[in-house]
Amino acid sequence: MIPFTFDYYRPDTITEAVRAYKELEGAGRFPIYYSGGSEIISMARVNNIHTKAVIDLKAIPECTVFENNANELVMGSAVTLSAISEANYYPLLTKACGRIADHTMQCKITLGGNICGTIRYKEALLPLLLSDASVIIASGNKLATIPIHEIYNHRLNLKKGDFIVQFIIKNKYLSLPYFHIKKTKNEKIDYPALTLAAILDEGRVRLAFSGLCAFPFQSPKIDTAWNQEGLAADAKIHEMINHLPGPVLNDVYGSDTYRLFVLKTTLLNLEKELEKMPCSN
Amino acid sequence: MFKLEGKNVITLTVNGEKRDVAIEPADILLTVLRDQLGLTGAKPGCLNGDCGACTVLIDGWPVKSCLMLAAEAMGHQITTIEGLKNAPIQKAFVENWGFQCGYCTSGFLMVCHSLAAIHPDADEYVMEEWLQSNICRCTSYEEIRHAIRSIITSA
């Protein structure tokens, strides 16, 4: 079914993984880090990617850790979306993960895979952006802790050979009032015309979007526009649209006009939901 | 570090038995189960993770075997429809007419079996979430819903 062959490596440690990548890269094997693997297999099946080696990260203990300690939630990059939903440590992330693909696929897709893959929507990223997550990166011979807003700014800024080991979220974010809604063109299980996630933190709303532009984003300018006092919702929405960080997507899953219409109506719904927060949607 | 370079024999644990298979690292689990082990209950449908006809259980959780490498399954418990021996969900499907042509049935059975084991008290919302992973082109959805509901409520 996959129309080419590759070799399979399953390192037991971060060091082994980084070394394997370096050696395979040097040998011209075009290695790819592999986590859940569903996107890699489906892309390989239609020759959209090619590799001669995959490095499966699922045997590395640091990549599968999943614990909520006194101060923070630590999630390995190879933790599956269904494991996140079942544990429900962070209800907003549970909501986001529960709307990515279907339930059985959520048993295979991993948090790191959703965020590092080539599919543009990366919906699991929205709660991480809103909660100012820290990201542990395996980079060369060391681990680096980087704020998510540095490692992700409209695109993931990972150097070749680096991979995400863990995401860490401070506990204070886990129980904040939140709003999450995913709008699709037709089917429930589909790519989003718009996914909007929001949290209410110390009276201030923070918003993150997927499906609106070519990349997911969270924008301080948009948050500021939304949080203006004494301005009607229509006027706030108009100002927010002026601060979008890129052109609105215009494709088979929704025209730009349609997506903007969905954005406006969803923000008006958000306004109503905020009146009765804490809430879910 | 485990390495699989080129064609090799590996051991999979399928329905409680150790089974040796000769695989290329790029072989997907579905074709290995069907072509090497003769376990043809898992069906090739879309081969893209959409239809659920190829669903098997890995350590008790449903996984679409068209989007899993056979190499990845090493060290895990694989359960196929052939491994269900008169499970309650099988009887429930028969009693509730939970199938027509039958092509999707093994995938639905595996999802329902897993759901009943993991969430024996599942509510309608959870049932719907899990069952949305599979497609029945004969549209037996209502009867399948009755079948899973009958064993959830009796659990």
SSE topology sketch:
The complex is a heterodimer of chains A (281) and B (155).
Chain A (H helix, E strand, L loop, with lengths): L6 E4 L3 H13 L5 E3 L3 H8 L7 E4 L4 H4 L1 E3 L3 E5 L4 H7 L3 H8 L4 H4 L4 H6 L8 H6 L3 E6 L2 E6 H4 L11 E8 L7 E6 L10 E8 L2 E7 L6 E2 L1 H7 L6 H10 L13 H20 L6
Helix pairs in contact in A: 4-5, 10-11, 11-12
Chain B lengths: L1 E3 L3 E7 L2 E7 L5 H8 L18 E4 L2 E4 L12 E3 L8 H8 L9 H14 L5 H8 L9 H14 L1
Parallel strand pairs in B: 2-6
Antiparallel strand pairs in B: 2-3, 4-5, 4-6
Helix pairs in contact in B: 2-3, 2-5, 3-5
Structural account:
The complex is a heterodimer of chains A (281) and B (155). The mean pLDDT of chain A is 95. In chain A, the strands form three sheets. In chain A, strands 4-5-8-6-7 form a five-stranded antiparallel β-sheet. A four-stranded antiparallel β-sheet of chain A has the order 9-10-11-12, with helices on both faces. In chain A, strands 1-3-2 form a three-stranded parallel β-sheet, covered by helices on one side. Chain A has three domains: 7-58, Uridine Diphospho-n-acetylenolpyruvylglucosamine Reductase, domain 2 (2-Layer Sandwich); 62-173, 2-Layer Sandwich (Uridine Diphospho-n-acetylenolpyruvylglucosamine Reductase, domain 3), CATH 3.30.465; 178-275, Enolase-like, domain 1, CATH 3.30.390. By secondary structure, chain A is an alpha+beta fold. Helix content of chain A is 35%, strand content 22%. Chain B has 155 residues and is α+β, with helices and mostly antiparallel strands. Chain B has two domains: 8-83, Roll (Ubiquitin-like (UB roll)), CATH 3.10.20.30; 88-154, [2Fe-2S]-binding domain (DNA polymerase, domain 1, Orthogonal Bundle). In chain B, strands 3-2-6-4-5 form a five-stranded mixed β-sheet, sandwiched between helices. Chain B starts with a strand and ends with a helix.
